[in-house]
Specification:
The structure is a single chain. 29% of the residues lie in helices and 28% in strands. The protein is built from four helices and nine strands; from the N terminus they run H-E-E-H-E-E-E-H-E-E-E-E-H. It has a seven-stranded antiparallel beta sheet with strand order 3-4-5-9-8-7-6, sandwiched between helices. Strand 6 and strand 7 form a beta hairpin. It is globular and about 40 Å long. 33% of the residues are buried.
């Protein structure tokens, strides 16, 4: 039987601790912070929000929620903007593909099978949707979602996460704004 020297055991313990800390600080989102129940004025399930957030110590929200004219809301992890949600009330339909091109999103594809009246596009860095509202809300509104941190790093995973977040957010925004 081979006996390990105390220095070797100590080194292995340090290596194991380092590996554990690196695993906790990197990876697929979330972090030491608690995920909010509401994001930029909309109640969202944690599994919709978490994939877009990098690991970190603190998560804060800042900005305007459902403004009368135009407003941005940011999710901030450790003092870095990681997700921007822009809400714009509209009197008439605005083509989201045109807006997405002005934002220079790459890999634009239409969002299909939206569960609300409207249209949208998804790019590698974000999405833009114009949704019909009416009722107590504006005639239409546009929502832009931008992944400022480009998290997750793998583009396909980020696109899936952006699509899930966008659809859930716009659905909730329609509800919050009293849309028909």
């Amino acid at each position: 039987m081979k006996v390990l020297k105390p220095r070797v055991v100590g080194g292995l313990l340090c290596l194991a601790a380092l590996a554990a800390s690196l695993t906790a600080c990197t990876g697929g989102g979330g972090g030491e912070y608690a995920l909010p129940e509401r994001v930029c004025g909309v109640e969202l399930a944690p599994e919709v929000v978490e994939p877009l957030l990098p690991a970190g110590e603190s998560l804060k929200e800042r900005g305007e929620v459902f403004p009368e004219r135009y407003g941005d809301c940011w999710l901030v992890v450790d003092r870095a903007d990681v997700l921007t949600v822009t809400f714009v009330p509209l009197d008439a339909y605005n083509d989201p593909a045109v807006e997405a091109r002005t934002l220079r999103y790459s890999g634009l594809k239409p969002l299909e099978r939206l569960p609300f009246p409207g249209s949208g596009v998804l790019g590698d860095q974000g999405s833009v949707v114009t949704a019909r509202c009416g009722g107590a809300g504006p005639a239409y509104f546009a929502v832009q979602v931008a992944s400022d941190s480009l998290h997750p790093a793998e583009t396909g995973e980020r696109r899936e996460a952006l699509e899930a977040f966008t659809v859930a957010y716009v659905s909730g925004a329609r509800q919050e704004n009293g849309c028909e």
